[in-house]
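> call design_seq(struct)
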């Protein structure tokens, strides 16, 4: 029986709480959140019996063997290092940190402690994207040449969120950077990004954008293009295409139904699912299943710390590229 503590009980913490509750041989011992004293109604709603406003109570609890880090990004590294030193296995939401040196410090502590560590890149576990990866690994499409990723949110976040998000590349596109690297099966060597604030000009005051196109070159010769928008009027647009010398694999949007109506007036089918939780619910469940399977078997977790670092390097390169209006080599960053 794995006994876990969850640090941070905002939206993602609650998602992992609900998911972990469904798993056999997993017990949620306690939750910590800095606003815990004001969240009694929330804890009652979720059935949380033991909670604290101090994350150290999770780390120092001898009954807990696994820590889930679901707190704000700027707290991830401190909590991860403390958890590793306490001998706890760790599931950490992305990104590990916004600073490369700090991420490397976390990974060094994790390695020294010999604990398991997984980064929350849940989209790898989406049934559609995972099947595309399987097609690549099986050689069905031959050598990967071009990867296309479309990732557009249904609604732009409020400026209060943008202010502390770290920017579109580390907040939103980081999932797409990881997916491109995952599908390419290779390390990135060059990133070029263009973008602007086309949805809300006020975003610029926080040195951020809401619309971007990023191209990536990989060491194995593959190329990728990612297009991002903070607001798609028709829903949550999540598509992937991988093209190779023998064929192509493509993932379209998930929709509420697979029904298409054909009439004299035209062809009508459902818009994409609107909310990320609807679109990626299965992936949130599968990532925890595989995480705990790895802990049980002693195998490496499916998304290791180096994967988190790889995506962060791409995000920092993209930000530098946008600012300097030129391609940026990953070697300049790392």
């Amino acid at each position: 029986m794995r006994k876990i503590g969850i640090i941070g009980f905002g939206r993602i913490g609650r998602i992992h709480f609900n998911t972990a509750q469904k798993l056999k041989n997993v017990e949620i011992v306690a939750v910590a959140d800095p606003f815990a004293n004001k969240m009694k109604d929330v804890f009652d709603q979720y059935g949380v019996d033991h909670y604290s406003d101090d994350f150290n109570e999770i780390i120092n609890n001898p009954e807990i063997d696994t820590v889930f880090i679901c707190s704000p990004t700027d707290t991830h590294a401190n909590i991860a290092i403390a958890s590793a030193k306490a001998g706890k296995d760790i599931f950490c939401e992305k990104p590990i940190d916004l600073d490369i040196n700090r991420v490397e410090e976390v990974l060094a502590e994790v390695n020294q402690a010999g604990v398991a560590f997984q980064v929350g890149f849940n989209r790898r576990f989406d049934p559609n994207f995972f099947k595309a990866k399987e097609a690549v690994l099986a050689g069905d499409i031959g050598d990967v040449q071009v990867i296309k990723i479309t990732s557009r949110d249904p609604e732009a976040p409020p400026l209060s969120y943008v202010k502390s998000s770290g920017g579109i590349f580390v907040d939103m596109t980081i999932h797409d950077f990881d997916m491109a690297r995952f599908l390419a099966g290779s390390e990135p060597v060059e990133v070029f990004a263009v973008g602007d604030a086309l949805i809300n000009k006020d975003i610029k005051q926080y040195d951020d954008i809401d619309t971007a196109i990023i191209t990536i070159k990989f060491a194995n010769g593959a190329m990728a293009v990612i297009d991002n928008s903070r607001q798609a009027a028709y829903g949550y647009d999540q598509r992937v295409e991988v093209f190779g010398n023998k064929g192509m694999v493509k993932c379209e949007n998930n929709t509420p139904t697979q029904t298409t109506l054909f009439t004299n007036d035209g062809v009508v089918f459902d818009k994409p699912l609107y909310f990320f939780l609807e679109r990626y619910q299965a992936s949130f469940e599968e990532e925890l299943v595989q995480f705990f399977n790895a802990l049980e078997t002693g195998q490496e977790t499916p998304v290791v710390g180096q994967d988190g670092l790889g995506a962060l390097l791409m995000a920092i390169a993209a930000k530098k590229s946008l600012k300097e209006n030129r391609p940026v080599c990953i070697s300049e960053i790392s």
